[in-house]
Amino acid sequence: MPQGTLPCYECRVLKWYMWSMTALQGSSFSRFRVEMTKIISLVYVVDDIFDFVGTLEELSLFTEAVKMWDTVAADSLPSYMRSCYNALYTITNEIAEMAEKKHGLNSINHLRKAWATLFDGFMVEARWLAIDQVPTAEDYLRNGVVTSGVPLTFVHIFTLMGCEQSIEALIDQMPSVISCPAKILRLQDDMGSAKDEAQEGFDGSYRDFYLKENPRCNRNDAEAHMRSLIAREWEELNRECLYTRTFSSNCTRVCLNTARMIGVMYSYNKEQRLLVLEDYAKMLIL
After folding, report:
1. Over the stretch 146-158, which tens digit does the pLDDT of each residue have?
2. Which positions fall inside the Terpene synthase metal-binding domain (predicted)?
């Protein structure tokens, strides 16, 4: 894997918690916000391990260890991966225990499956990069929904909230109330906002792959197309929230609030600052 400059995690902590602050509003969800922040931070760390640090062989071992879900399986991993794995394993088990105490359901196997699905998605991107394979824009976006980390995060939060629908169905079928925010986030991120995280575009973006498929289009054409896709996902999400209502109002509100926050999280100025987010954080916290 190409080596890059690792992002400044101190600059990300506020961002991680602001996702939770806006997605889960209300004093009754205080503990859930803490757990959601932990999951979001782990997604970022795992993403960076795949993007910047691990070799393909190491990443494959990392993925297999997650699927085995046993701390012994992590013994052969490099120390930095082992530390990440132990944190992932501990936090996920703690969330499963919290949900079991509150709702009487043992969901650890579903949470394990959600992590395995995320790691498989990252492995797809790693293999594309390793063999210089150029996926279609559609294939990239389909996999990007998974690697956005949105489905995984929602599975953990819905577990804590006692979502009445089968958690396994959320992973296998991924209803639109989950896939729409994930697509919106992936497309918004790929319109150039990843530069804040010191990424060099090693694993490509929807815009890059769209331009390869449509050589007569320029960057502005590609981004106009991406904005039209985002608008389409918003229409679908609004239909889900207003009419279909697959989940309880609390769970649906988490998805809607997350989607609303995406524009704030990626509204960088020329100095790569998130002034809107900074103002929003002051309003909520101070």
Report:
1. 999 999 999 999 9
2. 6-236
